[in-house]
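Q: Predict the bound structure with zinc ion.
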Amino acid sequence: MDAQKCLAACLLLLAAAPARVADDPEVEAAELLAKAEEKAAKGQHRTAVSLYKKIVKKYPATAAAEVAERRSQPNAFLGIADVMRSGPSSNRVDVVMMGDGYPIDDVDEYGDIVDDVPRVFERNRTFEEYLSYLNILRADVVSEEAGIDGFGREKSTALGGAISEGEQSQVTVDRALVRAMMDQEIPDNDGVAVVLVQRGTLGTGGGGVAAVAQREFDTLVHEFGHAFGNLRDEYTTYTGFRGDETTSHINVSGTPDETKVPWAHWIAAKVKGIGVYEGADGRVRGAWKPTTKGCVMGDGEFFCPVCREALVLRIYDFVDPIDAAYPDAFAEPIQLARDGEPIEFSVQVMRPATHKLEVSWWFLPEAEAPVSPPYNPELASAGARASRGPLPAIDAKPDQFGRNDKRGIYSFELKPAKLAPGHYSVICRAVDTTKLRGEKWPWVLKDDNDLLKSERVWTVVVR
Ligand SMILES: [Zn+2]
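A: Predicted complex:
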């Protein structure tokens, strides 16, 4: 290469390089922090820890050093990586896996177990159908000592793993520690964690956090039912005092009244196998469950219809049936000239494993369009789609129904040529009917807040 060409190349390189303040310790420390996180994600945990320590020493008083200091502790969060990425965290349930009682050289062993977790969800019929609605993340957490509290010993671990006191010796963790670590290290977490505990048996779950002894995969799904779905036990075995009275929950009732149990709509619909059966919530008397046919929340292999319905609705608290829409600006009306080109609207919808969402399009004068709650993407991120409430009915027949390609993309074309000038609404609605081939009943019978439905509305001004 001659000198002139070289100079041109060098100038190009300089122009392409990101703006960087020379010798800015904040920038250098941040770069090193990113490198440490990359090493942790690749499973090189000792390297990550030495980099964190280096940041603390070399770049004190920087923002990165504050993070690195925390991550250099004997009990610490080291980094996070995807195990199963189905889509953007803003529109998926992010299940964060964590480990407790794994010293630095054993964090790999924890990683091997986590690699099997997608298959654990896949083997359960409910989660298999909605697997693409979940992301599974591996948070690497180091503990100073191996094992957990119990057997007369106290161990120094990151998340307070312990053998619970009571009739059964199942493992627990300190949920406040789990939540604090998630909020500090994983800012956009969904408050859903499964902690694999290095010793002990069985597990416990509630309030978004499940604790499971490592490789107790049957227990994992049960505890996830508690933690994520707020489901109660459908078994009768006494596992410790739970109070004198049973208040009603999704799948356990404090009353045997068929019209008052939380699953009364399943009984009213005369769904076979659903009734009111005494013996649940760890007691033989005074608590009632919906089925005796077996449920994961009892000792069954699959979730009963009542629990399955609750889990699907809970998933839709975090996941909007419409994953993306184009054009993606809804605030500004779209101006259309009558002699102009046609315009195409499209949506990408979620795709359960064996059934398809239904998509309908309406093109209505704005005055005839229903007034819906405005689309707010923050609701799915926050797991609060239920707060949107139901969508108003549209009396008009849809102008288009279905017509998708294989990737779940549905489009609607608008030709302005024959339209009268005025304001119009293009409305797209997607709904998960939860009707699977060969099944008599939908998975969700009652959806008071229309969680299974989503809508996008574009305003079009024809001139
Ligand atoms: Zn159940």
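A: The two ends are 59 Å apart (CA to CA).
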